[in-house]
Amino acid sequence: MNFISDNLAGASAPVMLAMAAANDGFAAGYGNDAWTRRVEGLFADLFEREVAVFLVTTGTAANSLALASLVQPWGAVLCHHEAHIAADECGAPEFFTGGAKIVGLPGDGCKLAPEVVIDQLARLRAGAVHQVQPQMLSITQATECGLVYSAEEIAALKQAVAPRGLKLHMDGARFANAVAALGCAPAEITWRAGVDVLSFGGTKNGAFAAEAVIVFDPADADEMPWRRKRAGHTLSKGRLIGAQFEGLLASGHWLDLARHANAMARRLADAVASAGKLRLAWACEANEVFLVLPSQAQVALAAQGAQYIAWSDGALPAGQALQPGEVVGRFVCSFATRIEEVDRLAAVLATV
Amino acid sequence: MNFISDNLAGASAPVMLAMAAANDGFAAGYGNDAWTRRVEGLFADLFEREVAVFLVTTGTAANSLALASLVQPWGAVLCHHEAHIAADECGAPEFFTGGAKIVGLPGDGCKLAPEVVIDQLARLRAGAVHQVQPQMLSITQATECGLVYSAEEIAALKQAVAPRGLKLHMDGARFANAVAALGCAPAEITWRAGVDVLSFGGTKNGAFAAEAVIVFDPADADEMPWRRKRAGHTLSKGRLIGAQFEGLLASGHWLDLARHANAMARRLADAVASAGKLRLAWACEANEVFLVLPSQAQVALAAQGAQYIAWSDGALPAGQALQPGEVVGRFVCSFATRIEEVDRLAAVLATV
Amino acid sequence: MNFISDNLAGASAPVMLAMAAANDGFAAGYGNDAWTRRVEGLFADLFEREVAVFLVTTGTAANSLALASLVQPWGAVLCHHEAHIAADECGAPEFFTGGAKIVGLPGDGCKLAPEVVIDQLARLRAGAVHQVQPQMLSITQATECGLVYSAEEIAALKQAVAPRGLKLHMDGARFANAVAALGCAPAEITWRAGVDVLSFGGTKNGAFAAEAVIVFDPADADEMPWRRKRAGHTLSKGRLIGAQFEGLLASGHWLDLARHANAMARRLADAVASAGKLRLAWACEANEVFLVLPSQAQVALAAQGAQYIAWSDGALPAGQALQPGEVVGRFVCSFATRIEEVDRLAAVLATV
Amino acid sequence: MNFISDNLAGASAPVMLAMAAANDGFAAGYGNDAWTRRVEGLFADLFEREVAVFLVTTGTAANSLALASLVQPWGAVLCHHEAHIAADECGAPEFFTGGAKIVGLPGDGCKLAPEVVIDQLARLRAGAVHQVQPQMLSITQATECGLVYSAEEIAALKQAVAPRGLKLHMDGARFANAVAALGCAPAEITWRAGVDVLSFGGTKNGAFAAEAVIVFDPADADEMPWRRKRAGHTLSKGRLIGAQFEGLLASGHWLDLARHANAMARRLADAVASAGKLRLAWACEANEVFLVLPSQAQVALAAQGAQYIAWSDGALPAGQALQPGEVVGRFVCSFATRIEEVDRLAAVLATV
């Protein structure tokens, strides 16, 4: 019962097969191969428009390159203070940008609200040489607490920052889960809602190591080839990533995988609700379930070998603070999570 | 007849199988998996000593991390002026080091001689705050012109820089080819000869995307985990690289592949010598053949669809300058080069 | 009635004379001059121990160099979220450190309490490669809200961070005012209390452009000469700064100036208290007075041409929030503030 | 007889007086003062056009800011390999630019010729992601060997790089000496000849610490305020630099000083020529004299206490190599060099 993260399984079978199939023969190097070309076309289809695509192997690289291409060293990136770029990448955004400031903001469930963003913008005066200048807003979809922004919410955030000219970045490490949850077109929650650049995650959704920076206005992508190369993220055998994405994007495989992961999380959340013993820290909207675990639940889970993360970061909503002994447990479902495991876990949780 | 580079084929079959075999089940993330652990052991065996190992996906990342970990921003790295770190990585070493200076030196066939290094050191005064301070010497094994340093040559270079306290880095993108060529133990041309840190290349030798930074004194590796993470090179599913190296290192597969590549180059060079029509720009010591090609040879190669690179970088030794119309053609053999292709190429070259 | 800042006057007369006196003849360049040597001796006397001294022209340079010398790019510097290094230097610390993270913490009056620091440390796990590593605590003395840390408070902060090995930096842009306020020896509130490196401010206290980085353990200063030079802060005619500090430090002139500034602020605060019309936002402990100004006071001040800054940053203590129309006005006194001006200002404030 | 450098004297009397005169009263901070405003106007007059002006205290800062504002981290700056930015600033340009590459080129007397530049450009392919991209050419006027570029020579260099879109930077640490030598308008050898950005030196020409970055197209200056602030080079009491420049630029004082320095060097060179004992390494075109000194000359100079630098950098022109025992001695004259000292030195040199 491993619910630690969605990046602990290998690749889905079709992705592994695509990698194996891509192995034969010679191919042009450094992303000039046929797989990468085809993937660019697949992304254009997926997003219903021309896009610039840059394949890399990690989400940290994708996020950091996206930020560095659109933010100057004296720029500020506004985001939730528990956003992956702020809290979990060891300062990679600062490294790639040459020292831009990642400004963390509060928000329930790692979601940002327009008024919080507007308030922060007011505190960073435009043109004041003593202060960093806000140049980007970054949101995570689905959030680090498993919540999903609607298209309207995203558009409202863009509207909040547009007067100051900020770009909107979406960390889509779990973008597939969000799209599956919303049942929307990818375009709806990205460029049509004002997103300028997207880190499209593959690794947490069935790939081995495949992330794509999707730049919706190609003019915003001018610096990317140089920045990617300088960071050592331009693979000579680029088809390794290309093939993974071809495996993911063909026939909607990526969405099937995400729907499965979401369904497993939903099944778990429903079972917990039915049992009526435990409360959720945040709503289950994608592929993660956050449960408030009293100590006897923690003991039971440990006894049964259920693996999860004790979530220290997310402050609970006002009025729902943890009682002594309680922790928030994060249970993540992935493409590889089996229904039997979910039901075993639910059974354990029903007894506490 | 594709002799453009040794990074245009996919992975060798055993490497691909190792990747596929590594795909099942859950594994700890971020390099804490069993594959990575085993590979660390394999490298310790290979080098006959404790080593610190850091797996990444590109040679640029391996080199840049190796440099950044041991050179301060005001440091200088001495190397050949056509070294990959100086000429082909778009300033990645400068990015990773925070602006250290890569100081290019001359040398036939991209090889450095101790006296050239000593002469440069004399021009960079120790402690003079106006000048960058030399802190590392980097050599490429085999060199960008396909030559191989002997253990004695390496030791002499280390001796040249040791009084000033420089570390010795080896860019081993083609380390396997050098070991195969010399028939020596890997330890002999690395730490026993004074090498402090090695970029051990897998990608050009049968892997898909697998390079290892080998740090011989673990104390030199303190900064590496942070630098790798900040650069986005700590894969969550680290077994992807671990499995490739396990495939390579098991049963000496890596050396078999390198021996094959070298043998193919040797076969080509011998055929050219037998034909007596063309001259080599540099001796064929590993897996590359550099031929001086008159225009009629270029025409014949193009007509037969032979692919190679016109090598603009390497200045020819004194007295062997190119005649009008001549170019140096670089023909690289890899694990995937087939004997039939070599013979076809040799046949074309015999006719010019 | 200019109370905007203590950096708007020129230099005190003795400092200006020292500059003029230093103008004659030739002197060795780049800080190897006699003035700089003598200033190093004066600082050693002042702090009652050997110190390493690095003269620069701005506080931003002093702070950033101090941080960069002791914090790695993946390090974190804990400080108040309104500290000058966090809010007013346009990301200079990030630039000099190569992208370290400045982590802002709350605290009344821009003062930090040990428990806040300890709480933050607990959230940054030692050795966790995903997170920046806390390596320095930086406090401002006197704080941005004009408060002064006692020697005991400083020692308690050092004790809070010592188990994790953090260095303690003091931004002493108004160090003289703090020493004057406490009536203590400079050593007491610096190295004896655990301070590792001090930005000793001269510019706000009678110099034209003179700041000194004082490193108490010379081993901590190894990188400074290179970092200063690379940042363009090693003046060829270093005596320009040396002479200013000689003017300041000779005969206790620096403390006389600070005592005057403090006395002017105290006089203002006392007058306001006597008048009983306005309340202080924070206690007047050094050379600044922060007053809560209702709108009629703002109007009166404007009408009389009194210049001050509306202080937007410092959140007031709980229970003392601003009422509609109120602002906090910052009134700074300097060596150049004349008693007549203070009394004129006090008279205006007494009428509102 | 101190001929070591032109940065060892203090400030000229009018400059010192201007500083003293600027000391009274309050002034707006951070370069918003009246002195700085007036200096901007003086520079506009001097260059006969609108210019953007950024005052700093060191030449290293001026050069590095000029480069960083117009060169991306993956850019290359072409310059002479003994240029100050390449050899004497400890990597400051790399620091400020975020790791751009300073590419050193050969040339007699530290002067660059168009063909050398064109040849290097051909080796850096436009758009090749593996290579840094040339974005700036930097020349020194007068050069590090005391030679002066004519307006025609500068225009030819700009023409050589214009097709590739490079900006032209002039390191004018001794710009005044060059203008005085050529007797031209400052505009002629700057923007009219294609210079985009100039480091206008004051420190070597009678100021204490005053350099100005002059950006001829204000659109090129957008980044400068932020970069200067982040580097700690935005002085709060900006009038300190403003006053120095006002002192220099008023009534042509800067040119008078430069003419004096040049005349002293000319007098020395003429005396040496008359004596017929020693040969010049390079022509005396500005304020420096480079003499080939046999060992008996070195002994005589030492015996008489004449101070100069043994110049190790500049390779002598072909056919004029140093004989055993010979060194090149650099003798620099400044605004403060007295005719008696020159004559004493000449007398010593006439005897060897």
UniProtKB/TrEMBL annotation, chains A, B, C, D:
Family: Belongs to the threonine aldolase family.
Root EC class: lyase
GO aspect biological process, one term: L-threonine catabolic process
Organism whose genome encodes this protein: Bosea lupini
Name this protein carries in UniProt: L-threonine aldolase
Catalyzed reactions: L-allo-threonine = acetaldehyde + glycine; L-threonine = acetaldehyde + glycine
UniProt keyword Lyase, yes or no: yes
Domain of life according to the entry: Bacteria
Role this protein plays: Catalyzes the cleavage of L-allo-threonine and L-threonine to glycine and acetaldehyde.
SUBUNIT field: Homotetramer.
Cofactor: pyridoxal 5'-phosphate
Keyword entries, A-Z: Lyase, Pyridoxal phosphate
